[in-house]
Amino acid sequence: xxxxxxGGIAWGILGDKKGRKSVLFGSILLYSLATIANGFVHNVxxxxxxxxxxxxxxxxxxxxxxxxxxxxxxxxxRGLAAxxxxxxGVMGTITAYIVFKLSGGDWRLCYFIGGGMGIALLFLxxxxxxxxxxxxxxxxxxxxxxxxxxxxxxxxxxxxxxxxLIGLPVWYIIxxxxxxxxxxxxxxxxxxxxxxxxxxxxxxxxxxxxxxxxFISNFIKSRKKTLYIFYGITALFMVLFFALRGGGSVTNxxxxxxxxxxxxxxxxxxxxxxxxxxxxxxxATAAISIPNLVRVVCR
Length: 299
Fold this sequence. Notes:
Layout: H1 2-17, H2 20-38, H3 44-72, H4 75-102, H5 107-124, H6 132-137, H7 154-165, H8 168-178, H9 181-187, H10 195-220, H11 223-242, H12 250-263, H13 269-276, H14 283-298
């Protein structure tokens, strides 16, 4: 989480100063190599430092992808593009669950496979184009990637903070309710609950939620109204989740985790909205730092 925080700010600044594509490639390479290296460690301190480095790398990829999408596509297609990006990313968690099961719980092998997939992704993205919008302003004499600019103007600061706040429900669900769902199940008096299964089901539902949010926002021509719809779904399932304190079945717990996952289907839509609130000189800084700051706040 510390790596994500520092990396979110650092990659954001680099994205506006050096280009979105360089951040995309650099972040993938860093977290892939750190993940592979984690499979070789025999020391807790080394393991911890490599997770920190992996966090630094991981912080840049999603925001850089969304920034590129926002600048390469017309606004009418950005919601659908964000849905595709989110759904593809979510499938990674489901794949991780399958790999873990097939490997018999061999955590070293899981790290090697995960890092190897990152390297493969890097080669697949070689043909990605740099943003023409960014190219058009990089030679203009204007401040780019100055993180402190979010705090030197009240309107800009207010937009930045609101962008963080609208993502809090999503990462509260993912980072707290689902990540610690096994402990909640214990407190609720539910036995036989498996947290990895709940995580996989939640992300499977999240994939459908992300796709649905993209189609809905495109259909009703409003990302803001789509946020309200999914906030309503999220609030409903949060209430039902804590209603299990009186006791419930494992099946009900799994179904509620899926409902929470579906309601979290604005996980990339709100980042797209955040990127659209700022000019080209600060867009990457905002889109990359905001989701990582949201994760840290929720943790």
